[in-house]
Amino acid sequence: MSFLHPIKPARKARIGLYSVGLRAYWEQFPGLRDRLAEYGKFIESRMSEWAEVYYYGLVDTEIEGRKAGEWLNSHNVEMVFCHAATYSTSATVLPIHQQCKAPVVFLNLQPTDRINYEQSTTGEWLAHCGACPVPEFANALNRAGIPFKVVNGMLGLDYTPAISLTNEITHNRMEAIRAWKEIEEWIRAASVPRTLKHSRFGFLGNTYSGMLDMYSDFTMIQAQTGLHVEVLEMCDLDRMVREVSAQDVKNKLDAVHDMFQISGDSPSDPIARKPSDEQLEWSCRVAAAQERLVREFDLDALCYYYHGAPVGEYEKLQGGFIVGHSLLTAQGIPCAGEGDLKTAVAMKICDIVGTGGSYSEIVVVDYVDGTIVLGHDGPFHTAIAEGKPILRGMGLYHGKQGTGVSVEAKVKTGPITTLGMTQTEDGKLKMIISEAESTDGPTMRIGNTQTPVKFPMHPDEYMTRWFAEAPTHHCAMSIGHNGSLFSKVGQLMQLKHVNI
Fold it and tell me: Does residue 496 contact residue 421 with C-beta atoms inside 8 Å?
């Protein structure tokens, strides 16, 4: 996936990590402590690919556990991984999580696929018995009212330590690959709440009148996600349009010609024509102002809509929105149309975990191919496009004021996941997650984004189940099968979530 250089990169999660053991073992079995610490450093190194990792080291007594909990708190970690390196009492572990309230995952990662039964010693066995204390940890945390998760599998070393009596090269084993995929998902998911708590979402204009599913309380959004909503004025954008230089326009025109194919007239739709030079120039002028707006107000995402009075200045201004907002979305600033703040949050979640997130709704069902076409009149996430997106001049925007340039494109063929963000009757946000496949089926040539999507059930059954969840009618489309990843985001953010 090829993104433009992000204006504001997502923040990596701060991850706490510690290993556990039993202090009585160290004198009884020389070399065991260093061996387990080596495993811990390996885990730290792997996790550092995705996070800022704070590794405390070995915790082997209740007193050390309290120190570790305070140390983890001092680093403001979003999540804590406990490496069950060998047997340890639950009294060692529980104080850590009574001190540090970050979500906890126990790692039961066996270093070998099989013990050397003939030559094994007690010390050798203790280096491989990480599963032994996990039920005890689970029982203690459950009784203390502390939620936890467990990852089971293999450690995944690509070498065998000199002290070992068995083969520990397990990085190609399915059990190691699966375990590390789950660990990576937890870490990537943990970057979402951290980034959102430092995010500023712009709200420009208003929500499309009458779209009741999209209306949201800004305080509710901040209370449940941590993000700040900055209410913006069209007059600020208008001021910035007037400040755009000829060189700014040229730079955007160059970017547009690099990223988009400029269409001819649509062979089917009389309102979708080749963009005029004036339409392109205006879209690029507005795009330069849109980027100024993002930078001046330090935004991480944007939702927008402005109807405007006929032939008014703001009508002309909003007519140039789609190209610039597509460029911003590819620069890590997701932009959701029609004032849909909740879908902007869904798009930002997709962006943070690196899976794209393009603005979509139901377009039409293809009962011949068994697909549902998803898309919108813009904006589009150009970084996850199949081929080069097309720009078409629009004689009108259906249901909206004005004319301008729109994006015609589809998401890459292959695995995709839609992420919807809705609001329940009790005022809680809810994530709706659906894995599917983007196909190479036909699309219309009407200047809108369109992706034929095949869900793992008949379109009617999918829609019945989707509508039953009372969704917001928009969603974010991401590339890859991300159901497990998005579910982890929901768990960490304590949001309701459902997989269809």
Answer: no
For residues 471 and 211, give the distance between their C-alpha atoms in angstroms, rounded to a whole number.
Answer: 12
Tokens 């990662």 belong to which residue? 109
The reply to whether 350 and 203 lie within a common domain is yes
Q: Is the dihedral of CA 272, 278, 279, 281 positive or negative?
A: positive
Q: What is the pLDDT of residue 1?
A: 43
- The answer, as to whether pTM is greater than 0.85, is yes
Pairing of strands 301-305, 335-336: parallel
Residue 83 sits in a domain whose CATH number is 3.40.50.10940
Q: What tens digit of pLDDT does each residue of 212-261 get?
A: 998 999 999 999 999 999 999 999 999 999 999 999 999 999 999 988 98
Q: Which two tokens stand for residue 22?
A: 């039993």
Spatial CA neighbour of 4 closest among 285, 287, 346, 274: 287
> How many angstroms separate the CA atoms of 448 and 294, rounded?
25
204 with 189, same domain: the answer is: no
Residue type, 298: D
C-alpha 264: how far from chain center = 36
**284 and 249 in contact (C-beta within 8 Å)?**
yes
How many domains, the chain?
2
A 10 A CB-CB count for 465 gives 15
